[in-house]
């Protein structure tokens, strides 16, 4: 659901760069500078609040050790081995960053914002190169020109979001029926 929500909220991935996505989501620190003095504060919280909240919530899931369940492993079989490897590497990296922040006794909310900032760039890389992503979003909204209102996406495991963004381009005929 997180990947789907981000795809809908961000929409056109091409308009954002690695530096601009953090500002768009309000995940960059505030700054006060005067002459040679520069100090940074908390995140700005400007921009798309819903997408920021999705990433903040997803970042919390990387604090605990990564242990995928049976259902998630079953969904892995539907994605490509390359997407699966990228997602697992990203999960390990984000969990390792959490461990480093905990070892340095960083406040959890500050550490989580940093993890969300890294996660937004990973999501940008996963979402940008897919032309089918926009088509899947149009289908999910029931866009009249798309001819369908169903698309496949991974749900529940927000840490599997990177692979889910790769899977979003699946044609509606291969998508599961929506829950009733």
Structural account:
By secondary structure, this protein is mainly alpha-helical. It has one domain (2-174). It has eight helices and two strands; from the N terminus they run ααββαααααα. A two-stranded antiparallel ribbon has the order 1-2. A hairpin with a 2-residue loop joins strand 1 and strand 2 (37-43). The two termini are 16 Å apart. Mean pLDDT is 75; it is low at 130-160 and 167-178.
How would you characterize the largest beta sheet? Answer: 2 strands, antiparallel
**Helix vs. strand class:** mainly alpha
The structural domain count equals 1
Helix content: 40-55%
Q: How much of the polypeptide forms β-strand, as a percent range?
A: 5-15%
Number of helices: 8
Overall average pLDDT: 75
Radius of gyration: 17 Å
Distance between the termini: 16 Å
Q: Segments where pLDDT lies below 50 for 5+ residues?
A: 130-160, 167-178
The main sheet orders its strands as: 1-2
SSE succession = HHEEHHHHHH
Compute the number of strand runs.
2
**Shape descriptor:** globular
Secondary structure layout plus pairing:
Elements: H1 2-10, H2 18-25, E1 29-34, E2 37-43, H3 49-60, H4 70-76, H5 81-103, H6 108-127, H7 132-140, H8 161-167
Antiparallel strand pairs: 1-2
Helix pairs in contact: 1-3, 1-8, 2-6, 3-6, 5-6, 5-8, 6-8
Summarize the structure.
The chain is built from eight helices and two strands. The protein has 180 residues and is mostly helical.
What tags apply to this protein structure?
globular; 8 helices; 180 residues; two-stranded antiparallel sheet; mainly alpha; 7% strand; disordered C terminus
């Amino acid at each position: 659901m997180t990947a789907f929500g981000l795809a809908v909220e961000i929409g056109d991935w091409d308009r954002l760069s690695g530096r601009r996505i953090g500002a768009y989501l309000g995940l960059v620190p505030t700054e006060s500078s005067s002459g040679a003095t520069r100090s940074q504060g908390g995140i700005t919280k400007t921009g798309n609040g819903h997408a920021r909240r999705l990433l903040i919530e997803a970042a919390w899931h990387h604090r605990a050790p990564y242990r995928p369940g049976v259902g998630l492993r079953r969904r892995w079989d539907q994605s490509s081995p390359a997407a699966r490897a990228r997602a697992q590497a990203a999960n390990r990296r984000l969990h390792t960053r959490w461990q480093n922040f905990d070892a340095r006794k960083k406040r959890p909310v500050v550490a989580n914002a940093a993890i969300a900032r890294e996660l937004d760039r990973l999501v940008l890389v996963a979402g940008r190169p897919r032309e089918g992503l926009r088509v899947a979003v149009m289908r999910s909204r029931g866009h009249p020109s798309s001819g369908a209102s169903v698309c496949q996406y991974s749900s529940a495991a927000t840490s599997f979001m990177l692979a889910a963004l790769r899977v979003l381009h699946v044609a509606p005929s291969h998508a599961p029926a929506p829950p009733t």
